[in-house]
Amino acid sequence: MTVDLSTLVDTENGLINRTVFTDPVIYEQELQRIFARCWTFLCHESQLGRPGDFFTTYMGEDPVIVVRRRDGSLGCFLNSCRHRGMRVCRADTGNTKVFTCTYHGWSYDTDGKLKNVPYEREAYYDEIDKSKWGLTEVARLDTYKGLVFATWDPTAPSLLEYLGDFCWYLDGLVDRRAGGTEVVGGVQRWRFKGNWKLAAEQFASDNYHAPSSHASAIAALTKDVDKQVARLGRNDGAQFSSDLGHATGFSLGKNLEHKLLGRGFPRILVDYQLSIWDEVVERLGEDRFLGPATSGHANVFPNFAYLPGFQTLRVWHPKGPDEMEIYAWVLVDKDAPAEVKEAQRRFAQLTFGASGILEQDDGENWAEIQRNLRGAITRREPFNYQMGLGHEWTEDGRYPGRLGWYASEQAARGFYRRYVQLMEAETFPTEAPKGPAVRSGRPDNGGIR
Ligand code: FES
Ligand SMILES: [Fe+2]
Q: Is 151 a domain residue?
């Protein structure tokens, strides 16, 4: 049974039925049609430096092991024993030659091949064909500048096609310096009540919440709180929405130093950004460095997100319709000095770690919304996604693609257009869904300044 999502999600008029965030049947459809198909983020390549290094995570609700094989390539396998389904690797990360199931002891090598079955002669009379009982492997695994992704769908487009026009913005995160990036400080994990899409759509499109939700955190981080909150409300930024569902929003402003200090960045991180100005501007250009490489929010469809500048990477793992688990990393430029990497790690924990002062504001909003959705009357009313409807543009000479003001919900509408398309399609769609027609060129009534 599948639900007709087009009756519940009306992106043309910016209305979404609340049951999309609560219905177990819709959730099951998401596992099948979103998470079993889309390219999902697994980890960063720097986590898997040596042969035998592994990291365990999830694709949707499916547990997986990502591993550096002996030949140096990366593999990704379902972390579920072919005998009775136990996870064959119960550690978060480590280095190994074999994965041995703790239930009855079947063991698999780093290519996923079944190597050893206890009492093979006595219990199986040497009749089990081990070559047929290896771990299930993903259809495809690929990396984009250090970011590791995989898909279960052999008909999915290539990773590069899947990311499409979002790559220009993503490069602001992963292609700033010649040495690329790495993660530091391990992976933080935490859970709370809240449908995964509440977090994904916020990171795709919601800067609007910052002046009210984060006012107290901004006060703790900066002296100039009134000025900062006013600035956030002034809408001096832009939002990009890919027809493929990915999105980002970012602030502008010509003075990088003021911009970062105004967000409470410690002096050492501000000085670092200023010190790499020439290198980054040469690679990405000034507009990209000042915008999407140093500020804002982003979500790669469906559930991989990051915050440029704060450098938190995260995955919103779905755990039922009303719960998610966050895995969070801290990303740094590999060429940065050690003390800058450490300062970045500490600042990311202070702001967007599990108990980070900004993270808590967001988590509380999502958890409370989810709690309220338990009410029968509450669920009857649609959510409003009408901000900026009819006020989008494209090709403004500085930023490519479909754009809107910083405070807009055009990217959320883009996220849900793609969501509906995938939820309805029997097979992986070959074309992106068509968004509304937009004017060409930036309107001159404010916005970017
Ligand atoms: S479930 Fe893994 S060996 Fe039995
Ligand atoms: Fe937030």
A: no
Span 49-93, pLDDT tens digits? 999 999 999 999 999 999 999 999 999 999 999 999 999 999 999
- Give residue 123 CA to ligand 1 midpoint distance, Å: 14
Can you give the pLDDT at residue 232?
A: 59
Cα 29 from Cα 35, distance rounded (Å): 9
Low pLDDT (below 50) residues in the chain: 446-449
Residues 6 or more apart in contact with residue 85 via CB below 8 angstroms? none
For the CA of 88, the closest atom of ligand 1 is 2
| Nearest ligand to residue 133 Cα | 1
Burial of residue 143, with CB atoms counted within 10 A of its CB: 0-12 exposed, 13-18 middle, 19 or more buried: middle
Which pLDDT score, from 0 to 100, does residue 91 have?
98
Residues 291 and 382 in one domain: yes
Residue 80's domain comprises 40-143
- Please count the structural domains in the chain: 2
From atom 3 of ligand 1, which residue's Cα is the shortest distance away?
A: 104
Q: What is the pLDDT of residue 401?
A: 92
- Please report the pLDDT score of residue 27 as a whole number: 98
- CA 36, 41, 45, 48 torsion-angle sign: negative
**Do 219 and 252 sit in the same domain of this protein?**
yes
Ligand 1 site residues (CB inside 6 A) read: 81, 83-84, 86, 101, 103-106
Among protein residues, the one with the nearest Cα to ligand 1's atom 1 is 84
CATH of the domain at 103: 2.102.10.10
The pLDDT value given to residue 230: 62
- At 259 the pLDDT is 86
